[in-house]
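Researcher: Good morning. I'm working through a list of sequences from a screen, and I'd like to move beyond sequence-only analysis. For each chain I'm collecting a predicted structure so we can compare shapes side by side. This is the next one on the list. No need for commentary yet; just the structure.
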Amino acid sequence: MSTKTLVIVLAAVVLVIAVMGGGFFLMWTKMNTTLAQMQMQNAAENEAEETPKEEEVTIGPIYKMETLIVNLADQGGKRYLRITMELELSAPEVMEEINNRMPQLRDAILMVLPSKQYSDIGSTEGKIALRDELIAKINGILKKGTVTTIYFTEFVVQ
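Model: Good morning. Structure tokens for this chain:
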């Protein structure tokens, strides 16, 4: 064999080894990327499965109030509000106190509602502000517990 042929054969062997090494390198990085994506996906699935367990929300006792109808403070007094609320309580003992203090609670609510205009309570933000104001008024009267939230089950303005 001549030197020229030997150099060509060696160059071909080096080229084949280089191509194989490049192929293995690409395959290795692709496998690592796929493995990392699978681990991230599994971690996300595990978090999604654990989230409902952590966020189990218990609802306190509910007291359903009677429907109230009040005139709103709009010009001419032509609008009225029909509202039904359910009060979520902090403890079952509060139910008895609410029954005993119902005249005071209705009075406090009836002092707040007619002072509102439609523009005050027509939006979602207005309803949330009204809810917060009513909770503060009611909790100011209660001594044994609190109202944690108010659910509006009927809210009609006409």
